Amino acid sequence: MIFSQDYQRSVEDVHAIVRHAKLDFNNLTNTAQAIYYPDGDTHANMGNLKLLEADDHILEQIRAGKSVSFKGALNEKVVICTESRTYEVKEAEISNSLLLVPKLQQAQATSRSPIKSPKGGVNTSLDSSTEEMGEEAVDSIDTIERKDVVRIFHDYFECRQVKPKYRKIIDLLRLTKYSGPENEHLVERSLLFRFKQLLDTVQCSKEEFEEGLRKYRAIEIEDRIRMLDNEYEYRAVTLMLALIGENSWRLDEIDKATTVEALEGIVPYDVVDKIFDVYTEPTESGRFRYREDLVCALFAEKILQQGLKFHIDDFLTTWQETLPDGFTVDEKYLRGIGIIDREGNVPCVRGLNEADLPNNLLVRLVTLFKTKERWNLEQIEPYIECFTTPTLGVTSILAKHTRSLVVNGTRIYVSKH
């Protein structure tokens, strides 16, 4: 190979190449850009440079100076995260070699002719000859500019938007569940995470991470992110709800200050303050109402102990009786925490928490079909949607990995094997 330091292309060389290629000089601009391949040392110095295929969202984030970061432990696939999205990153091959050449000019920028230059605003197409414009031929290629290739690429990183990977939030926070100040001496302090530490560890964007904390009702206690022990959370929320009747509050007139003050000495101020924020939403009056979906789901989880089955009517009756007046049970509140099976001899309901299922799609499907042989879309969707992408929905996943049949006008999914 002839390296760049051994050879410099001249104007005569360029003219000879143009003639051999049988190109029309009138269709060429004044400046030729001679491209030189890198020598071994130059290529080695650029060895850490990689190409990333970025969509409009990633480009907007970079141009706005916002955070764009790679995340992934040794045993995890790498993802790239913006402030609001998560992308799976895969290495893809380029069919042809791609050359990186700094300051390489586009064709029109290499011309001094007002006809061929976009500055003249007359003709920006290099396909139009000067003869068509009634002009005499313009002398072309009288200048040579050296352009060095700094790296040759044969692959690049391909990005595909994916759902946030929340499982790590659960796995890490379950190790240090909060069950009251009296039990804090049992918690391994080295396993506690600050907000930023956990955000840097979990493979999702900041906005998605905050949504994940809300989804799993994780709160910040003494500058550490904690999940609440199920029994402790149930007891605290029950005490809070009891104040509705004691103070004769309407359901949309809950007072936060009174609630926090009433539980002083029973539940730490910071804890009840954060739990209140999770389980309520503001009203137009400036006060609050409890979120019926979260309250009902919490009480359902309390009843649905692992492995137990309940007759559907008995369960619905018990569930309703445990709730304060004004709250009404609805099967939709069991989404992701319990399943209803009306196909057997005895209609029943059992607990099945999405957070407890395997994180591998195929293994999860095996578990689901062992639990229940037949699923409709509404039933199985909350257990599969974490594997979806903007271009791959639940129905597409099920079409690939399950068999389907139509029973009484309803599509049913069964195991493929």
UniProtKB/TrEMBL annotation:
Belongs to the DCC1 family. This is Sister chromatid cohesion protein DCC1. It comes from Culex pipiens pipiens (Northern house mosquito). Coiled coil: none annotated. InterPro entries: Dcc1. Keywords: DNA replication. One of its GO terms (biological process) is DNA replication. Residues 129-138 have a biased composition (Acidic residues). Residues 110-138 are annotated as: Disordered.
